[in-house]
Design a protein that fits this description.
Chain B: This is Dyp-type peroxidase C-terminal domain-containing protein. Chain B: InterPro entries: Dimeric_a/b-barrel (IPR011008), Dyp_perox_C (IPR048328), Dyp_peroxidase (IPR006314). Chain B: It comes from Methylomonas denitrificans. Chain B: Keywords: Iron, Metal-binding, Oxidoreductase, Peroxidase. The complex is a heterodimer of chains A (438) and B (451). Chain A contains 15 helices and eleven strands. Chain A has 438 residues and is an alpha+beta fold. Among the domains of chain A are: 72 residues, no CATH class; 211 residues, no CATH class. In chain A, strands 4-6-7-5-8 form a five-stranded antiparallel sheet. Chain A is globular, with a radius of gyration of 24 Å. The two termini of chain A are 27 Å apart. By secondary structure, chain B is an alpha+beta fold. Chain B has two domains: 253 residues, no CATH class; 154 residues, no CATH class. In chain B, strands 7, 8, 9, 10 and 13 form a five-stranded antiparallel sheet that branches. Chain B has a four-stranded antiparallel sheet with strand order 2-3-1-4. In chain B, strands 5-6 form a two-stranded antiparallel sheet. In chain B, helix 1 packs across helix 12 and helix 7 crosses helix 8. The longest helix of chain B is centred in the first third of the chain and has 17 residues. The radius of gyration of chain B is 22 Å and the shape is globular. The mean pLDDT of chain B is 96. The chains are: A alpha+beta (438), B alpha+beta (451). Chains A and B meet through helix 5, helix 11 and helix 14 of A and helix 4, helix 5, helix 10, helix 11 and strand 12 of B. The structure holds protoporphyrin IX containing FE (HEM). Protoporphyrin IX containing FE binds next to strand 7, helix 9, strand 10 and helix 11 of chain B.
């Protein structure tokens, strides 16, 4: 089953904001045992969050923007299936939350579902660490590994005297009847080849077209594309030279304290970031194209728990917020990751500065408070300026009211390893290496 | 290659722990009661050249060495303005005992700051005064002299921590209390007097005002009013933690567990550390201590940890060239962005019979220097040492020094054809106190004294 992003964005009625926060807050602080909702009952749900994107204080000349409620869910299957399940199992929760929002259609289940689905903005780019792994598969494979480890713990001495094939056979026999793992999705297996093929084709068309192999019309188009690229790059540099980076110092604010209060308390964290897109169509469309490219890479290449060297993200998404609040557009980024904030940001800088800078160099904290100085979209500068970048990221961060993870005890690497263990039960290739997974 | 502008502006402990010439050492943890008196005392110390620096290398004749660092509350009490106070890094502002920091460091349960001997609550510390001396007689006299001076300087002693008995092995390495050679692997820092050539780690990782490991960027420096960043230059952050070692329990456990698994006690203990007692790294297919120490390994010959286990102390504390990147080169680059410079000493006497506890306290006065606490010390502690997911593992923290969360006290020993596992053992190291300090340059100390 495919994993999908659901991002429901709704306007909060100004006089209901506090009520909503008071309702969701206690759920978030006691995610497991609160009396309102047990997220673990929703078998399609991997991760979800609720958070408020604060409204703007009206400044002279611009109209005030309302506070928004964002509901992020990382699910198996379609949003429709999940929403129906949610409303069927806990209508009270959904009605209470969306009763605080503009456009709430009342408690008719069908209308409520279509209200949520119309306000679902999905994602402009979506990354899934393990495409095809449903929540239940993740659980099942966790159990399988556990059973094997317990068996080895009790029998290590006698097992270790045998050769890998015999050990494998003993484990398989011990487990008894275990269902075979599902095949990995087509794109996980062949996506990278497809991607390389696409790049080659594009390269061939460009080079061949330029030298006229495909006739004068294609040649004309290629030349046109090249001219457009040069014009684009010049325009980009012109924009970059006028951009101002954010140089406000690190300060401790209430918001940051709220974020830190819940951060690094367990093995996984959530990062929510809302940031303004630099004004003008140039930056807006640049960002859209970059996000489309990242989405493509995520679908075809980054399908094995590794997003360009980052091995700690379970699910991540970028969403361009609907509407333009007071003439400004905003970019929302949400990520469910393993380990500490410091490590996460470090991994971004160490391994993925290119993609990361390509996205955020088109954004700013506010006027004259842009991303660290960048040259050529992503090639130089940007997030490589470690401290400025971390400061920028911190300042764009929002606290969550509710954050749920279906498996806080499993890292991205654990899930991949568990799957490998499961698959290895049905194969006799390279058993010595398979035993190293245990 | 980077050159340090003025060695005489940098406090000496940055370059050396004075292990060779200074047999004695006391760490005074002080509170400032009357800043009006503290400032002239500070000014005097600097003007009379009592603070040791990088250009006055000790010799056989040298009697004392003194270094001095301040915590955030220390700077507050010296009345730094708000902007200057804000210019220190956040972890330092919050403090090691704060709710957020202590959760991150794994100081929970019996390690909780509320149970510390010092460093939290009423026993928070403003100032760290480190006194090194050549021998007992000189140390006693110096202690008396300085303790009297503290009184006149409006300072009261929260706690005095004395470095303890010293033992060296045949190779000349100092032993820590569990009996392993310590002080072997320290980063070779570019520009340090002891480093030949360019070194492996940029100067700016341990000394502010110089290029760091991010393509030579400058790490943020604390500032002081009109003096600006010159105040932070040649200074660095100092982390102090008092770590009690339960030596009897450690060796008792090793004996029992080794017997149960049919292996030798030393073999099992070495797997926990990642090095044999001599300091030699444990290599694949090795059953006994080779006795020869070579620190130039990078784990590429032991990628799966069948020699030095993936979760052992030294592999967590510095994973070197395996695990953090697709290539050895990339992995090393990442690992080297999280290094620390250790400068601590042991305290207490050695336990005579290692399996029989004598009820006395002993352990490590862990000190490390770094230009960015969050990215270096805290990162090592949180993301490597205490992380149960380190290197793809599942439910185990550092077997030697990991925090006391009972369900994380497991340890996998990679082996062929099948791993060993040790489960549900106790914590051997307990946090008894700690604080973050800033170790200013001599000129910055002078400014503080004159302010
Ligand atoms: C009582 C507590 C501790 C004991 C008994 C201990 C013991 C040891 C030993 C025996 C070594 C190997 C010798 C060497 O390379 O110098 C070592 C290395 C090391 N330890 Fe610890 N340690 C303790 C606490 C810590 C803490 C709290 C940290 C940092 C957060 C730390 C970081 C390191 C580092 C970075 C190395 C060098 C690793 C390398 O570069 O190979 N240690 N420790």
């Amino acid at each position: 089953m495919q994993q999908n992003p659901m991002t429901v964005i709704t306007e909060i009625l100004p006089d209901k904001l506090k009520e909503l926060e008071d309702y969701l807050g206690p759920i978030g602080t006691d995610i497991k045992n609160n009396p309102v909702i047990k997220f673990a009952d929703y078998q399609y749900l991997h991760y979800c969050t609720f958070f408020v994107i604060p409204g703007d204080h009206p400044s002279p000349g611009s109209s005030p923007t309302p506070a928004l409620l964002a509901f992020e869910a990382n699910i198996d299957g379609t949003a429709k299936q999940f929403v129906n399940d949610l409303i069927a199992k806990n209508p009270e929760f959904v009605n209470k939350v969306y009763g605080c929002c503009a456009g709430y259609p009342g408690n008719d289940a069908g209308q409520l579902a279509s209200f949520l689905l119309t306000n679902d903005h999905g994602a402009n780019a979506f990354y899934v660490a393990h495409p095809g792994q449903t929540r239940d598969t993740v659980y099942r494979q966790r159990d399988i590994r556990q059973q094997i480890e317990t068996y080895i713990d009790a029998n290590r001495d006698s097992l270790a005297t045998q050769d890998p094939a015999a050990i494998h056979a003993a484990i398989v026999q011990q487990l008894g009847n275990i269902p075979k793992p599902e095949n990995r999705p087509f794109l996980t297996l062949y996506g990278d080849k497809l991607f390389t093929g696409l790049l080659w084709t594009l390269g061939l068309v460009l080079v061949g077209g330029f030298f006229g192999f495909f006739g004068p019309f294609v040649e004309f188009l290629v030349v046109l594309a090249l001219v457009a690229a040069v014009v684009y790059l010049l325009a980009l540099r012109w924009h970059e030279m006028r951009d101002k980076q954010d140089d406000t110092p690190w300060v401790k604010t209430k918001e940051r304290e709220a974020i830190q209060r819940v951060e690094d308390r367990q093995l996984q964290n959530h990062l929510t970031s809302v940031i303004e897109i630099k004004p003008g169509a140039f930056r807006f469309y640049t960002l859209k194209i970059v996000l489309a490219a990242i989405n493509l890479v995520a679908k075809l290449v980054a399908t094995k728990g590794n997003l360009s060297g980052i091995v700690t993200i379970h699910f991540a998404r970028w969403v361009i917020l609907p509407g333009n609040a007071g003439g400004r557009r905003r970019l929302l980024f949400m990520s469910n990751y393993d380990g500490s904030w410091e490590n996460y940001l470090g991994e971004f800088i160490d391994h993925a500065s290119l993609g990361l800078t390509a996205v955020w160099s088109s954004t700013q904290q506010a006027k004259d408070r842009g991303f660290p100085d960048t040259q050529w979209l992503a090639i130089k500068g940007g997030s490589r300026d470690e401290q400025r970048f971390k400061n920028f990221a911190r300042n764009s961060q929002l606290p969550e009211l509710v954050w749920y993870s279906a498996y806080t005890d499993l890292s991205v690497k654990n899930i991949e390893n568990n799957r490998h263990i499961h698959e290895g039960l049905f194969s006799t290739a390279d058993l010595a290496a398979w035993l190293k997974c245990l | 290659m980077t050159t340090i502008d003025k060695l005489e502006d940098v406090q000496g402990i940055v370059f050396s722990g004075y292990n060779k010439y200074m047999a004695n050492c006391s760490y005074y943890l002080l509170q400032i009661d009357d800043a009006g008196k503290t400032k002239p005392w500070l000014k005097n110390l600097v003007e009379q050249n009592q603070i040791s620096h990088g250009a006055d290398k000790p010799t056989d004749e040298t009697e004392n060495r003194i270094n001095l660092a301040l915590s955030y509350s220390g700077f507050e009490k010296l009345q730094l303005d708000k902007d200057s106070l804000y210019s220190f890094e956040l972890s330092f502002q919050e403090g090691m005992d704060s709710e957020h920091r202590s959760a991150l460091l794994g100081d929970r349960g019996i390690n909780d700051p509320s149970a510390w001997d010092w460093g939290s609550g009423a026993k928070r510390v403003d100032l760290l005064f480190i006194l090194f001396s050549k021998n007992d007689a000189i140390h006693n006299a110096s202690q008396k002299y300085h303790e009297k001076a503290f009184k006149g300087a409006g300072l009261s002693v929260v706690q005095r921590l004395d470095a303890g008995e010293k033992k060296q092995d045949a190779n000349g390495f100092t032993l820590e209390h569990f009996g392993f050679a310590d002080g072997i692997s320290d980063p070779q820092v570019d520009g340090f007097p002891s480093t030949s050539g360019a070194g492996e780690i940029a100067t700016g990782e341990f000394l502010l005002g110089y290029p760091n490991q991010y393509d030579g960027k400058l790490t943020k420096m604390p500032q002081l009013g009109a003096v600006g960043e010159a105040f932070g230059k040649n200074g660095t952050y100092l982390v102090l933690r008092q770590l009690k070692q339960d030596v009897g329990a450690f060796w008792q456990f090793m004996e029992e567990e080794a017997a149960r698994q049919g292996i030798t006690t030393d073999y099992l203990a070495s797997k926990f550390v990642g090095r044999w007692k001599s300091g030699a790294v444990v290599e694949p297919n090795q059953d006994t201590d080779p006795g020869k120490v070579d620190n130039s390994f990078n784990f590429t010959k032991d990628p799966h940890g069948t020699g030095c286990p993936l979760g052992s102390h030294i592999r967590r504390a510095n994973p070197r060239a395996v695990g953090l990147g697709a290539t050895a080169e990339e992995a090393l680059k990442v690992a080297n962005r999280h290094r620390i410079l250790r400068r601590g000493r042991s305290y207490g006497n050695f336990l005579e019979n290692p399996v029989k506890d004598d009820g006395k306290e002993r352990g490590l006065l862990f000190i490390c220097l770094n230009a960015n606490i969050e990215r270096q010390f805290e990162f090592v502690q949180h993301t490597w040492i205490n992380s149960v997911k380190f290197a793809g593992l599942y439910d185990e923290d550092d077997p030697l020094i990991g925090s006391g969360v009972a369900e994380n006290r497991n340890f996998t020993i990679q082996d062929e054809p099948l791993r060993r596992r040790v489960c549900g053992f106790q914590q051997f190291v307990t946090t008894r106190g700690g604080s973050y300090f800033f170790l200013p340059s001599l000129s910055a100390l002078g400014l503080l004294g004159n302010s």
